[in-house]
Specification:
Layout (H helix, E strand, L loop, with lengths): L6 E4 L4 H12 L4 E4 L16 H16 L3 E10 L20 H14 L5 E2 L8 E16 L4 E14 L14 E3 L4 E2 L5 H7 L1 H16 L1
Helix pairs in contact: 1-5, 4-5
Length: 215
């Protein structure tokens, strides 16, 4: 399993995710690179039915090709009013190629289609309302092909879906995800604030604790 001074490949081309991982692993002396820095690697088909299954599939498939430790995550948005959708299909909810704006637009269309009741948010002002309870969920899987070791960690954060985007930070569904306890959307948080409470931040802290225990 990885130690200080090692190099780790993150199985993502998402620059937002990559930035979060780089910040976290820098603190334990591990150098991170992502799929944008490795030529010739194919996209891995995500055939799992859970976030952890998909993360495991990606980590093992990429590790087999590059012969080094790989960290993969599968994460997504689970909306109560949509029976947990988009779930494992979050990244490609509006189809391929993945597009954040299109995914957000489809989510709002689906909530409108089912007649989700809007609850006005006086503290947000300017006519903002929430349409459903929801949660972000993340599964991280670290796989080291040298000894076939595997570590897995999960995290989630509860919130509500806004009736329109708010904030310019983050990525994915962040502009539509309202955090009642903070009175802001995920896209209004600084990176440090987001990492402190996010599903991915929680899973990362659990994983780093596991690694420290194996050091």
């Amino acid at each position: 399993m990885i130690r200080r001074g090692d190099e780790l490949l993150i199985a993502t081309r998402n620059k937002g995710k990559s930035k979060e991982f780089r910040e976290a692993f820098r603190e334990i002396g591990v150098t991170v690179k992502d799929l944008n820095e490795v030529a010739g690697l194919p996209d891995v088909e995500e055939t799992g039915t859970t976030f952890e299954e998909n993360a495991t599939i990606k980590a093992k498939a990429i590790a087999a090709l590059v012969g080094m430790p790989v960290l993969a995550d599968d994460s997504g948005l689970c909306v109560d009013a949509l029976s947990g959708a988009p779930g494992v299909y979050s990244a490609r909810y509006a189809g391929e190629p993945s597009n954040d704006a299109a995914n957000n637009e489809k989510l709002l269309r689906e909530l409108d289609r089912i007649g989700a009741a809007a609850v006005i948010l006086p503290e947000a002002g300017d006519g903002f309302a929430t349409l459903s309870a929801a949660r972000f969920a993340c599964s991280l899987v670290l796989y080291d092909p040298s000894d076939e070791s595997r570590l897995a960690a999960e995290g989630d954060v509860e919130g509500r879906i806004l009736n329109r985007p708010r904030g310019s930070g983050g990525f994915g569904y962040d502009p539509l995800f309202w955090i009642p306890s903070l009175g802001r959307s995920m896209a209004e948080l600084a990176l440090e604030e987001k990492n402190a409470i996010s599903h991915r931040g929680q899973a990362l802290r659990k994983l780093l604790t596991m690694l420290e225990g194996k050091a």
